Amino acid sequence: MIRLEKVTKYFQTKTGRKYIMKDVCLDIPSGVNIGILGLNGAGKSTLLKMVGGIDFPNSGKIESDMNLSWPLSLTGGFQGSLTGKENAKLICRLYSKTDKDVKRALDFIFEFSELGDYFAMPVKTYSSGMRARLGFAMSLAFDFDCYLIDEILSVGDKKFKKKCMSAFNDLTVKRCIMLVSHNTKVLKKMCNAGIVLENGELNYFEDMDNAVKYYQSQL
Fold it and tell me: How far apart are CA 219 and CA 214, in angstroms?
């Protein structure tokens, strides 16, 4: 379970505080694939970062008894001056227990990402699709209870996206995901329940179809 207790999150702007959440209380059950919707600027990525522990509320707290992945995103998470392999090795050192585990994970990342020679090149030279390949492979190299995914399913060539969708479909047999996306077809296919962010509130729906209908009614 992921529990939000009186969570408030805002950003200070020239015109005052921009609230993402105001005193939100919500229990998100374990074992459910959650799709996250909201207009641009509603705070979808911020929510995922707070759940993943790389951003924090201004007040309140977020707790979970699950082993959560880092947020998979196109906009961050890599050190651009390091190679793909060096970035992967840093993560492997954090999440692996032995040198054997590190080697196994690195081999998997290299093979799954299909980056070839680019694996030994700086990430700042990568296209968004190549970053997605590396991010997917790095996350799949480790066993999490819940995978946090931010729009990353929207990039890459058709063949690789199909490969990643297949991998995540296999994962969700035993694991769960929280997926941020504007692609409602993908959300309906992959998620059971949904959250719609709106005006500082989190609206939770036990059925993804109902979440999509509510979101589309706000457009």
Answer: 9
Give the span between the Cα atoms of 74 and 135, in whole angstroms. 8
CATH homologous superfamily, domain 1-69+145-219: P-loop containing nucleotide triphosphate hydrolases (3.40.50.300)
The Cα 40–Cα 42 span in angstroms is 6
Sketch the domain layout of the chain as residue ranges: 1-69+145-219, 78-143
DSSP codes, 140-164: HTS--SEEEEESGGG-S-HHHHHHH
Q: Tell me the per-residue pLDDT of 167-196, one tens digit each, with 9 for 90 and over.
A: 878 877 888 999 998 889 989 988 999 999
Taking the C-alpha atoms of residue 215 and residue 150, their distance in angstroms, rounded to an integer, is 18
pTM: 0.86
- Burial (CB < 10 A; 0-12, 13-18, 19+), residue 12, is exposed
- Does the pLDDT of residue 74 top 90, yes or no? no
The share of the chain scoring above pLDDT 70, in percent, equals 95
The SS3 assignment for 49 reads: helix
